[in-house]
Amino acid sequence: MNAPFFKFEYFNSDVSLIIAFVIGIAFGIALEKGGFGRATILASQFYFTNMRVLKVMFTAIVTAMLGLYFLSVIGFVDLSLVYLTQTNLLPMAVGGLIAGLGFIIGGYCPGTSMVAVATGKLDAMVFVVGMIFGILVFGEMFPGIENFFNSGFMGTVTLPSYFNLSYGLVVFLVVLMAVGAFAAAEWGEKVMAAKTGKEKL
Length: 201
Description:
Layout: H1 13-33, H2 39-44, H3 52-73, E1 87-88, H4 89-106, H5 110-118, H6 122-149, E2 153-155, H7 159-163, H8 167-200
Antiparallel strand pairs: 1-2
Helix pairs in contact: 1-5, 3-8, 4-6, 5-6
């Protein structure tokens, strides 16, 4: 039996939804246990006082990347069947910027806000109401921005295919980038801690 299991039709859509639900609940619990259901911890990422988000999420990305890569090497996963979203570069960049600003202002992203709502946090409930309002506004505006939304189409792009590099080399470079990011995060936290300490004296 090889993966991805759904693409090889080892189970149907109904079962896939049940599996997705279970994985989603487990992911939400993991986020809450990691402290990602608190806006103060999430927002502190942008002030370099607590880089837990970068460390945990980058660790998750690297772990998943290494797992997929080595499972593909031994023939267990067919990477050509792994779902990838299509790339519209400029709209995605603008959307990422808007989402980042919302993250800084509200202290949550869509996923973490739902985790916080599940634990009864009022600020997260306000954030979710704002998010729903934003979705409605976007829906009303969409006819006017549809051309921009669909601009910059690049098809399905991966770093190995775009830069004409081997998967193994890209995996190695991302691991190096992660190590560098962790080191920079530790340094940033120490600098901000020292600065805060001096200001308190």
